[in-house]
Amino acid sequence: MTDPSPPPSTITRAEVDGAIVDVRIDGGRIVALGPDLARPGDRTVDAAGAALLPGLHDHHLHLLAWAAARRSLDVSERTDAAAFDAAVMAAHATAEPGRWLRVVGVDDRHGPLDAARLARLAPGRPVRAQHRSGAAWVLSERALADVGAPDRDAEGWIHRADQELRSRWADLDGPPDLAPVGRRLAELGVTGVTDATPSADGSGFALLAAARRGGTIPQRVAVTGGPAVADQHPPPELERGPVKVVVEDHALPSPDDLATAYSAARRAGRPVAVHAVTRAALVVALVAWAEVGAVPGDRLEHGSVIPLELVAPIAELGVTVVTQPGFVHAHGDRYLDDVEPDDRPHLYRCGSLLGAGIAVAGSTDAPFGPDDPWRAIRTAIERTTARGRPLGPAEAVSPAVALARFLAPLADPGGPARTVEAGAPADLVLLDRPTAGALADPSAAHVRRTWIGGMVVVDRG
């Protein structure tokens, strides 16, 4: 956890809201903005006219899954079944005998996948492969023999059973290494995150709290958890976020079942964060919301497909949409090739939602999406795929609006952007150029230094 009382420091000649000022930090907070604020004994950093911004907030990601993904075989860049097979066979050939192989980033491009195919690719080795959405797993025959598995569908996939599966192989994986995740976030200028994992118990909370205490995750962390832990308070190192409610795509719940989950959150005095990525899932979620009613802090996670006729009902409810513009760049070419033409204009809306008065927050969904919020900011501005094809250009927003999606408080995603002002926590990011230049070319490469609670966590000179 960051030091609550780092030494006083002054950032001189920083561009803040278009003005060149000094910014003095003491006790982990900004205490003054103005000219010539440095005092004897202060640590000083000369910004030389570069932009000083509030640290970015990523409003939807998965820290433990990200840590696990870093030690996994990522096949997301393999574009067909042959490339998938070659990657798995190569990983099997070089891995220690008997060691589990974890594969991530699987999708339809890799062909039908089942236990027998994994067994052929990695004979005798326990293998588990995760769909790129993070919502489903398929296990090899050896893995099934070693740990068993919950019910599988006709193709052998196990849906939304992470909690049970994790308990079966926890001793095999060892503790997650969150330090690289914390470093990566700091390098991106991210000082706060919301972990949107719908956990059914508090084990994940304990791991994240320990990482905060030890400083491996220096960022401020809000956590969700599922309806089963709606009344549970996380450890003091973590902030209590909304209750995560998942609308299953492979087995849609009834509106009444969803309303029951919403009501569990209401009884605990908490809002809900409702995962809905398809048109049908969104309709069911909205019907349940209409029954129970929305409260401040309610969120629609992803909203991957929001037909125009559903924009007004979302606005009437007053819920925030937490979207991932980075998916347009990372997966947009596949969307343009595979998604029904009628759905393409409705993918990952942003501009039209803001125009309808809907609060919109930005996020990455790492590791299930690209982890770089600056890439997401660029995509929100440009609305182009990795191959440069336009996707939903009418949803584009201005650079300042795109940046602001990542500057709202963790407790108020989509709310007013935080500012560099006296009294605010010293969660800051110093860029290598003024704001206008950075927004003309959004990139994590511009991040020069990051502070959390007044403590420097990244220093690129």
Short overview:
The model has no long low-confidence stretch (mean pLDDT 93).
Please, could you describe this protein's structure?
- The structure is a single chain.
- The chain is α/β, with parallel strands linked by helices and 461 residues long.
- The protein is built from 15 helices and 22 strands.
- Helix 8 (255-267) packs across helix 9 and helix 11 packs across helix 13 (373-382).
- It is globular.
Largest sheet: 5 strands, mixed
The low-pLDDT segments are none
State Rg.
22 Å
Shape: globular
Q: Ends: how far apart?
A: 23 Å
Decide which structural class fits the backbone.
alpha/beta
Q: How big a fraction of the residues is strand?
A: 15-25%
Oligomeric state of the chains? single chain
Mean pLDDT: 93
Helix content: 25-40%
Tell me how many strands there are.
22
Number of helices: 15
Strand order of the largest sheet: 7-8-9-10-11
Entry keywords:
about 450 residues, alpha/beta, five-stranded parallel sheet
Spell out the blueprint of helices and strands.
Layout: E1 9-16, E2 19-26, E3 29-34, E4 43-46, E5 52-54, E6 56-61, H1 63-69, E7 73-74, H2 81-94, E8 101-106, H3 115-121, E9 127-131, E10 136-139, H4 141-147, E11 158-159, H5 162-173, H6 179-187, E12 190-195, H7 203-214, E13 220-223, E14 239-240, E15 243-246, H8 255-267, E16 272-276, H9 279-292, E17 299-302, H10 311-317, E18 320-323, H11 326-338, H12 351-355, E19 360-362, H13 373-382, H14 399-404, E20 428-431, H15 435-440, E21 447-452, E22 455-459
Parallel strand pairs: 1-4, 6-12, 7-8, 8-9, 12-13, 13-14, 15-16, 16-17, 17-18, 18-19
Antiparallel strand pairs: 1-2, 2-3, 5-20, 9-10, 10-11, 20-21, 21-22
